Each structure stands twice: as structure tokens, then as C-alpha cells.
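Can anyone check this?
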Amino acid sequence: MELSNLEIEKLVARAQRGQEEAFSELFDFLYPKISRYISFRVNAEDAEDLISEVFLRVVDKLKKYKKTPKGNFSAWVFRIAHNLVIDFYRKKKDLLQLTNPETGELQFDIPDSALNPHDSAVQHEEHRKIREILKKLSDTHREVLQLKFLEGFSNAEIAKIIGKSEVNVRVIQLRALRELRKHFPEEEV
């Protein structure tokens, strides 16, 4: 299910007036995106708790939400998720650590759709290669690339989510892409 920013803002207005079906539509739209975003950063058990906490905070703060020129509702929800992940790692004294401390593996888990065994194996191998390459990037570079290319946020929205200027986001994105390019053989670029 895809929704335009205008459709999302209309649903938000209805949800702010207490219409549960509007919030349910927002939840259905945002849950897979927030789940993927958080699962990329923490282990599966902790991810479930953090995802639940994101939506509890959204419900709690929904009436205070106001659209701004640089951000929309999705960016606002991702900012809540971003802050919860930071708080999670602050509590563990491992601020912004994106790897599993026990295995050293990057937490990058995009759920497989119903694929045949061959396609599933190919997708698994592609994800493994992506994980290996992403391990070589800094935490900030990984996060900006994920928000831009997996989640589809604009640079202004990313800036709001990670608390940096839009210009800084563009610079981070450019540097991340340059770094990423170094890890791909010429014929794949």
C-alpha cells in the first residue's frame, strides 16, 4: 500500500480527531517501513520492543504533530524511531552500534517475499554481499543510504530524522556513494 503525502496528512487529521480507522491505515502503511528501519539496527527481540514503543509514542504524541515545510508525518515517525534506537544504544553504552556485538554481523534483514528456492537463494546471496559492503561504511553513511534508497525519503526529510542540515545530508550521501562505489567491481557499477 502506497500513500501520497497529501493522503497521509488527511489520515493524520482524521486520526487526530479520534478516527481509529484512519490511524489503522497509517499504521498499516508505516509498520513495514519502521520495522525494516529498526530491524536494520538492532537484534530481532529488541526490534519488536522498539517498534512497539515507536507506535505507542506516535499514539501518545499524535495530537501534538504539526506538518512543517521540511518534514511530513512519515519523517516525524522515523525521527521517533531514530531517537528510540539512539536511546536504546545509549542505555547499552554502545551508541549507534549497528552490528550484533556477539557475532559482529550487521543487522540488515529485509524480509523475503514468497520466492521460489532459486530466487530466494539468489536474494540471500545478494543480501549477504550488501551486508559485507555496508559493514565497510560508517554508521552515518549506512543510515543516510538506507533512508534515501530503501525508505525513499527526501534529503530534507532525512535531515529532520537524523538532526542534521539538508546540505550536510547531501554531503554525507555523496561521500557514502563514493565509498560504496569503491567496493563494487567496475562492471557492476
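Reply from J.R.: I decoded it. The radius of gyration is 17 Å.
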